[in-house]
Amino acid sequence: MNLPAGSxxxxxxxxxxxxxxxxxxxxxxxxGRGGQVPRLDGPWTHRExxxxxxxxxxxxxxxxxxxxxxxxxxxxxxxxxxxxxxLADAGFRAVAMDLRGVGGSDRTPRGYDPGNxxxxxxxxxxxxxxxxxxxxxxxxxxxxxxxxxxxxxxxxRRLAVCSMPHPRRWRAAMLTDLRQSRSGGYIWGFQRPxxxxxxxxxxxxxxxxxMIRDWSGPRPLDEESIDVYREAMQIPSTAHCAVEPYRxxxxxxxxxxxxxxxxxxxxxxxxxxxxMHGSLDRAVGTRSVAGSGExxxxxxxxxxxxxxxxxxxxxxxxxxxxxLVNWLKDPEPDR
Length: 335
Fold this sequence. Notes:
By secondary structure, the protein is of the alpha/beta class. Helices cover 39% and strands 16% of the residues. The protein is built from 13 helices and ten strands. β1 and β2 (30-31) form a beta hairpin. α2 packs across α3 (140-151). The longest helix has 21 residues, at 195-215. The N and C termini lie far apart (46 Å).
């Protein structure tokens, strides 16, 4: 099934996910029961919230101003395990959500365009009973954080993006920068029907592990953590849902809906913004991210992590969390 971009006006009924054979993951966590990702234990609580016509799994810790964490590909909420505790200890209410189609959230047949996915994010903010949130996004989650800040500015208090340029910069880099186009070759590969899904789950999702290792710097994730992501990708329907946003991002480039989205993203971001990037990121080049500050009409801070790759929040969680917490607590972040 090759799904077109969805819209908020279309019904988003969950795809029935068949039961999978139970498999035990690292630490004894169970995968595959009823198609749900494990609710890995830790100093956080798990629950589901309804938003934008679907249900979303969240993990939360702490009390205080809301910080909503958005994961990237090929991961799920667990990518923020280090920041959940760091933010909670710093006096924030930290919430990591599974994006639509991934982890413990609903797998719907449509609705994977960035506009609708951003409405998922802002809908979760409202469902949590909060007036606004500081959004922190990595990779695809960063793309959606940029989008949400432009579409629903009243719901976004601050914006922190890691390993992802502004959507207009991403589009330009993929079309005009040969180096970035090669680095993002996996995205071009996702445009084929059915093949990417099969490749992602083949050999116990070995490709997921290969991607994470290839995109990391000299401090790669440990094999136990990589195994968690490999197991999560094998939950039925996850691979298909995980690549659908990238299909929309490419296939819509010349379509009216894609051109309209690109125009909408001209709206400037008017909240303090922190842009973080690993100097050795092999998936998203540093020069592809450069220039994103042009779309921010507010204090903008650039932070380059030397010696880190595409996953700074996991490769060096202490440095990343320290940078993030200090910026969130700074009442007047400088430009």
